[in-house]
């Protein structure tokens, strides 16, 4: 292999081994790389979920296409192992979609509450802020209303009763005969 030419500027400075090293030798300072995490850095700007969702809204259509593609592959697939992997992927995609919708609903609810507060403030009334417990109660009431509309309330309540019964059984002291 031919020798590669290295310019004298980029290679290290050669020092004679016969000459003693000077007491105050010249040291070249190297700039230390500063690693920045964009999540916590002010230079990246402030995170605003509304702006983020608008900016990356095109990803939703891509995700939808990918989901359809996975569904088609799942129908065609004969290999059970491959089919199981595709099913897991499809489940994960649907769960992510549901979580995103849930987050969007929460955000919209918070925005509507803020709007109401602003309207009250404009009318000259004192602003009233809900506690976390009150917000939770409202969410629960909304969830029950949604379940009632879809007709799944009874099955949901049955499952909840079963879960509570199992918890109660665990809490009771074991009865040994």
Automatic annotation (TrEMBL):
It is found in: Nucleus, Nucleolus. The keyword Phosphoprotein does not apply. It comes from the Eukaryota. Keywords: Nucleus, Ribonucleoprotein, Ribosome biogenesis, rRNA processing. Residues 158-177 have a biased composition (Basic residues). Associates with 90S and pre-40S pre-ribosomal particles. This is rRNA biogenesis protein RRP36.
